[in-house]
Amino acid sequence: MFIVNYIKNIFKGVKSLLVGMRRTGYYFTHHKEIITQQYPDNKETLNLPERFKGEVVLIHDENNEHACTGCTACELACPNATIKIVTKFDITAEGKKKKALDKFVYHLELCTMCNLCIIACPTDAIKMDQTFEHSVFDRKELTKILNKPGSKIRDGVE
Amino acid sequence: MFEEIGTTTEGDLIINVGPQHPATHGVLHLVITLNGETIKKLEPHLGYIHRSIEKMCESLTYRQFIYVTSRMDYLSAHINNQACALVVEKGLQIEVPDRAKVIRVLMAELTRIASHELWWGAMAMDIGAFTPFFHAFRERETINDIMEETCGARLTMNYMVPGGVMQELHPNFQKKVKEFIKLFRLKVHEYEELLTGNIIFQNRMKDIGVLSKEDAISYGCTGPVGRGSGVSCDIRKLYPYDAYDKVQFDEVIETAGDSLARYMVRIKELHQSISIIEQLIDNIPEGDYQAKTKAVLKLPKGEFYQRVETARGEFGVYIVSEGGTTPHRIKFRSPGFSNLSALNHMAKGSKLGDLVAMMGTLDLVIPDIDR
């Protein structure tokens, strides 16, 4: 009886190995089911979803105008002090002083892409961009000023 | 205390496994006393990836501290975030919309499948089978793509917020999840063909690292480790949260307590997760995805605790509030820490080669153990 069981176990073991090897062999001969992406050769066709959180950008329209009022809601919402808003005072047409955005400083090196600033913004001035290749040679290059030079706030945004 | 590396007075050899060792999947440091090839004592040393997350959370508001928990158990980041959102909701007594509850459960179950798949591949690789790793990552990639489309990130999503979820589901979500489930049912069958029935694998797992029911309870083992030893400890079943009371599923329990039992629990949990997703994917209620909450959240004075079932076991968040905008004290109960504490008991008396199989089935995520 012992010998019968022993031989049975050997055949069972060999069979289990063959079942597994059949699966491996199937993929060895079916190249169409390989899903590896050939990055960076496929850079042109690489489509990231629109919600992908790559980095924060300030939206500018064609007239170089943005919607940021300098209210610092994003600065307060950020857990890592990634955003620093520097404000200045503009003189309006009526001669009044008005608070406006001077510099939107964004530290990409501190950002964890948690999306809290985007949700906190009352005027939808900022959004997440889909860029993801952020490697640079110097850390200083990761501190960015998001408002473009010469840009100003769009009329009608309060 | 630390012992000198070398030999003890009885002639036993003391060796280090880790902190940089491929089988520990992170910076886990084990100091092992060996008699020949038999383990006499095993001592985990922690602290290599301590980031003082609990202290950090004390300076963050109730909206901000959620994202940090994704960095603890990064394989079930969604479920950690869910626990944090739930405890804040408990304190503020926010009524979460039904739609948000269902979305949360769907996301949590997808995360559980992704986590178990990574475990399956990595554990098989530890044992010596290299092919399963690629098979597991192929399907995990599909889940990551689904997550990326709706949440905007692949691993650290930060999708749960107090009051619901952060964004509406992507229009493609339902279609893609249905496609995935259809495919995944076939693939689980493939997994079993490749590994579960394999005679070499069976011999390496059977009667290795046996943990009795009493020991599992006394060490506080939860999740698949506890259920592999016959302890009924599924929080989804015992204390249902979100939409878990509306779905039908079985709590998987194996009684053997060895490595193979823990393996089988996880494989069967994959089937249960699929069945939960199938029940909910066509029945997502209409409505808001987020309850209306105040801009600044202030928890009333008191203590709040919420536990959830992550892929590794029971995860708890304990908050002491003094009535301010930030927590006074916060404590996380992580499943990995308790599960690791049972390793010495399991490994005592077994061979060094079997240790890898035991660690593999414990499914250790080191940043979760060492916060």
Structural description of this entry:
The complex is a heterodimer of chains A (158) and B (371). Chain A is α+β, with helices and mostly antiparallel strands. Chain A has two domains: 2-33; 55-153, Alpha-Beta Plaits. Chain A has helices at 2-29, 73-77, 116-120; strands spanning 55-58, 65-66, 83-91, 97-107, 126-129, 143-145, 152-153. In chain A, the strands form three sheets. In chain A, strands 3-4-6 form a three-stranded antiparallel sheet, with no helix packed on it. In chain A, strand 3 (83-91) and strand 4 form a beta hairpin. The longest helix of chain A has 28 residues, at 2-29. The longest helix of chain B is centred in the first third of the chain and has 30 residues, at 98-127. The mean pLDDT of chain B is 87. Chain B is of the alpha+beta class and 371 residues long. Chain B has one domain (51-369): Cytochrome-c3 Hydrogenase, chain B, CATH 1.10.645.10. In chain B, helix 4 (98-127) packs antiparallel against helix 5. Chain B is globular. The relative contact order of chain B is 0.19. Chain B contains 15 helices and eight strands. The chains are: A alpha+beta (158), B alpha+beta (371). Chains A and B meet through helix 1 of A and helix 5 and helix 6 of B.
Brief overview:
The complex is a heterodimer of chains A (158) and B (371). Chain A has 158 residues and is an alpha+beta fold.
